[in-house]
Amino acid sequence: MKLWEVIVVIIGLALEPFNEALKKGANQWHLNKVTLCLVSLLFAIIQTIMLGIGMITISLLMENLHIEGGLTFTPFLAALTLIFLSMKMFRRTFREHSFVEKREETMNYKALVKSACILGVDALILGILLALLQLAIIKNLVLTFCITSVSVALGLWMGYRLGMKYHVVVNGCSGCILLIIAFRLVMNCF
């Protein structure tokens, strides 16, 4: 995968925390800069840790098994993984949710950690995929941290200002991005 493809995949993955932040922002009575920064850092750190766990585990496994030059089926496995993640996002898009915007005084950080860890599973899967493609670990961790933190901050702010108008569109866009990259990976094999 080229750098721009990795960036697009990470953006697609970061749209999921963006959507969660959109919901949390819509529920805030008052959103200050400290809360915005804390929530952004929380999601970014958990996403980065999960991506790192996936990448480091598979990299060490491949190194211990002495697999040089990667596996021949890796692009197809990568495409299947991206298709799986995109279908998961589409399922969330089309599932009916009744969401009531109610303003809360404080941010529930315990619930935020729980939802960030749940969303981090997708980052773990992506980390495994990126390690199988033998991509640079540090560069991907830095990209994930930066993109996720900006995405969550933007989601909180937009949710606070606009409410929940666009949360369905965000999941749909996220799924489309991952499907396009999966298609591109398969086409590069031929």
UniProtKB/TrEMBL annotation:
It comes from the Bacteria. Keywords: Cell membrane, Membrane, Transmembrane, Transmembrane helix. The chain crosses the membrane at residues 34-61, 73-90, 111-135, 141-159, 166-187. This is Manganese efflux pump. It comes from Holtiella tumoricola.
